[in-house]
Amino acid sequence: LSRFKVEDCRHCNFCRRNQKEGKYCAIDDDGQALFEKAETADILVLASPVYMMRTSGRMAAFIDRLHLFIFGNMTKGRLRNKLGVSMAVSWVRNAGLEMTHLSHLLAFGILEMIAVTSHHSISPLGGSAVSSMHGMGRFDPKVRLGVENDKSGLDSGRVMMERALELAMIIKRGSIHDIK
How many other CB atoms sit within 10 Å of the CB of residue 179? Predict the structure, then answer.
């Protein structure tokens, strides 16, 4: 999302009655391209930095705009049964990671998606990493991408994506016995 312009939903109800191919929302920003990517994907990953104990404002705006997949006259249900993965990076270990995941998981539920979870991770709710050394919140001006030093956090993201791929194969093949 950092490379795209996604405005806040205006709740104008354009999507309820006026959608057409290539124009799902009245707002003229980068949303359309992202909506089209989401509806063609098997797995939707919502990844957010955690600034104030929750998902970022940019991510919240995008999630709000996804409501066109619930109520859209054309797009209603197009995310149904897709897989959703939550990822989050916080400065401090216990400073909003799970609240961010809960926001993403709630969105997946409302969109009738399948939330990917795993107990073989830092949090069963999603990939969870920190950007300060050991998640202690101490600032080191020499470290630019501290998340790269959080091996456990990066592993939790890998675990979530492996689980998402496993579920995608089960869904595509129709049986858990067909993936081994």
Answer: 13
Helix (H, G, I), strand (E, B) or coil at 103: helix
In DSSP terms, 46 is beta-bridged to 86
Model-wide pTM > 0.70: yes
Helix (H, G, I), strand (E, B) or coil at 174: coil
Q: Nearest CA to 59 among 162, 70, 51, 78?
A: 51
Task: Answer for the pair 89, 49: CB distance below 8 angstroms, yes or no.
Answer: yes
Mark out the alpha helices in the chain (DSSP H runs). Answer: 14-17, 31-40, 57-65, 68-71, 97-110, 151-173
At 16, the amino acid letter reads R
CB 164 within 8 A of CB 85: yes
CA dist., res. 128 & res. 57, Å (int)? 18
What is the pLDDT at residue 179?
A: 55
